[in-house]
Structures are given as structure tokens and as C-alpha cells.
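Reopening this one. Same input as before:
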Amino acid sequence: MASDAGRKQFWKRSGAKVPGSIQHVYGAQHPPFDPLLHGTLIKPGSKPPTTPVKLKKVSTFQEFESNTSDAWDLGDDDDELLAIAAENLNTEVVMETAHKVIQNHSKLQEQHKFQEEHLQEEKQVESAELSSVAYGDNRLVKSVSEGHTSSSSDNASENSSMQRSQSLPQTSTPPLVSGMADYNTSVTPALTEREASRLDKFKQLLAGPNTDLEELRKLSWSGIPKRVRPIAWKLLSGYLPANVDRRESTLQRKRKEYFAFVEQYYDSRNDENHQDTYRQIHIDIPRMSPEVLRLQPKVTEIFERILFIWAIRHPASGYVQGINDLVTPFFVVFVCEYIEEEVVENFDVSSLPEEVLQNIEADSYWCMSKLLDGIQDNYTFAQPGIQKKVKMLEELVSRIDEQVHRHLDLHEVKYLQFAFRWMNNLLMREVPLRCIIRLWDTYQSEPEGFSHFHLYVCAAFLVRWRKEILEEKDFQNPW
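Same output, byte for byte:
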């Protein structure tokens, strides 16, 4: 959400005040095929151009959609494949390439099979060394039983473990504080080669003394690996500084500041001038998603404090229905910092140490506050921000898919009827939580992701389901 003063956002480069004319964005598909750079892919006998190819300026939503069709792919090398698909190769080249692909695939299958057998043997050895699970430094870690003895078998095992560790890249991310989970030692499902490579890029970027936030945004646009998502979100939201040495002191100061607010304001929740706010928060929390998480008393208690403190400290808007949904993604991501379970919604949050819960609560509050700073006009009196965004969405759809726009108008469907909640809750009620978290990876990589880029996502929803919309004749309760 941090803006770059030296660079105009892609949706503001045109003179129009409504979105629609856009430029390339982070994570967009690679530039068009350039024969000068891929000479070997040109058909025999064809004459290459003598001047560099000038990239065409993207000016329509359809071109934007085409250029970002691979934005959700984790791959970094798809330009070669796209280039090959764009050119007509002769039969000999195709057959030779296919033969090589089959051979390479067979070799990789054999290597993977051997690696799986080897990993299985290692797991059996390591399982004998792990004796208990204990909380250390306020996090969940595996404790090794009693250490190695002086016997020859133990020495051999230690040497073997040392050789394995030396063979791995030494790019571990320094912990922010003692309470952060160790990403290198946590037990998680095996990663694919592509996922491991992508995770390694994030670790290398985060391991430096000063994180390059611009590079972090580019990497994060196509999704953030789960292991590094907590720290990446804190950096992208502006909650943590780029300098590694300042992070621990910043966390301690901000967490202390938050609980000073709790001590100062939370007891006033039953006062006459605040009881309506607290009552509305208390009513809205059970409506949140996911259901399993919201029904935990500890989670309810934490969310009530976060929302009440934010409302008291932001009297211009106060608490508005919809803000309660915006806490959940931050809370779930930061819980993952301290646990190994894949499905956080089924985890008993109350089993975490009290200090860990306090850290999660404070971090969720500050990151949610950073988000709301950019869209607070959505929640002020009469919610003018939402009114404006819904109007912009209507104009955008009328430009990119006039048929859908006319169909909705013909059946007297007002955009405000279905898009209001899309803007108010940021699609939290329409999309599963795991998809929302992935979507927010991209939102936080954009300078105005939650306020402007969100419009394009909503428009993409209508374009994606245009067939169903055009077939619908009764819009009494379509969404």
C-alpha cells in the first residue's frame, strides 16, 4: 500500500477520471514476442525485421485481461512457451523438441522417485530423534531428545545431518523477534521444485539488511509463499520498516502502544456514548466468515477489542458494518506464523500462549489500520467512497462489455444492488478465505490495490460470468 511518488499508477496515466485505460502492471504477462531476441524460433526463410519492435501501448480492458491472464501462475519462464505457441515451427523442429521433452520427463520421473525414497529414509531417521513438541521462545518448535551421545552411531548420524545441511542454500531469513516461527524448521508439506525456487527468492530478498520493497512488490504480485507471507504482509502494508535492525524495536513499540490503547479505552465500551458501537460490533462478529473460527470465544474476544479500539480512535467514521470482515485475513495469516496446521480455521486458537495471542492481536490491529487508511471514505457518513467506486465500476463495465451492461440495464438491475457489498466487504462474503488471502497478496503489491485495483477485479468477475449473466432473466436474487 506504500505509494511510489516517482511513478504514476497505471490506471492514472490517461486523462480519464475513470478506470479503463491501463498499462502493464506487476505480474503481467511478458512483453510480446520479439523476433530479434528469439531468432531461433523464426520460420526458415523468413526475414527478421531490421528495427527493434516497439511495444504496443495497452489501452483497453480486453488487452489488460489478455496481458494478465497468467498473473496467478507461479512460473517465471512462461515467455518461451508463449513465444513458441505464437510461431509456426516446422515439423522437424516440433518432433525433435517433443522427443527431447519426453526424454527429459522420463529422467525427471526417475530422479523424483529416487529423491522420494531417499527422503523417506531420512524422515525415518529424523523421527527417531524427535521426542517431544514444546513451546520455546513463544512459538511451536520441535525439541530434540537429550542431544547426541558420544557413541559412534550418534557421531555418524550427526555428520550425516551436517552434510545435508551444508548442501542446502544458506538463505534463512533472520527472525523479527523471538516469537516468530522458524520457517526453516517448521514441518510443512513437501514443495514442488517451482515452489521451492520461488520461496528461495523471497528468503534471499528478505535476508538482506534492507529489504527492497519495490522488488518485494514485484515478487508478491503473483502470490506469496505461505511460509513468508506474515513478514511480507507486514512489510507491504508499511507496518514494518525495510531495515532489519529496526524491526524488532518497531514491533515491541507498536504492540506496547496498542495495549496502552486497550487499557485506556476498552473499559469505556459500556459507557453511554460508546455502548451502541460496542453492541453493533458484538452483533456483527458472529456473522463473520469462516464460521469455525468465529465461534471460538477467544477469537471473538480479540476481534471485539480490535474493532472497538479502531472505532474509538477513528471518530470520523467510527465502526461500520463490513469493517469486521477486514480483520480476518490478517488474523489468520499471523496465526500461521506460530502453528504448523495447514487449515487454520480448525485450529484451537486458545491453545497458543497468551503472549503469542497478544502479538497476533496487535499486529492484526495495526495492519488493518493501514489498510483502512487508504479506503476510510468507504466508511464515513453516507459512505461516499463506496458510492463513487460503484459508479466507476458501472462506467468501466459499460466500456469493456457493453452487452452485459445493457443486459443489466434492460432488467433494471442497479450496480449498487450487488456491488455495494463487493466494495464494503472487499469480496470477503463472495470468495473463500484462502482465495481472499491470495488476492490480498496482489492488492498489497499495488500502490492503491484496495481502492482502485479492486475495481478491476470486480469487473473481471462480471466478465468471467458474463454467459450466466446474459442468460439470467430474473434478477430478484441473483447474488
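So the earlier flakiness isn't reproducible anymore. For the record, DSSP finds 19 helices and two strands in the chain.
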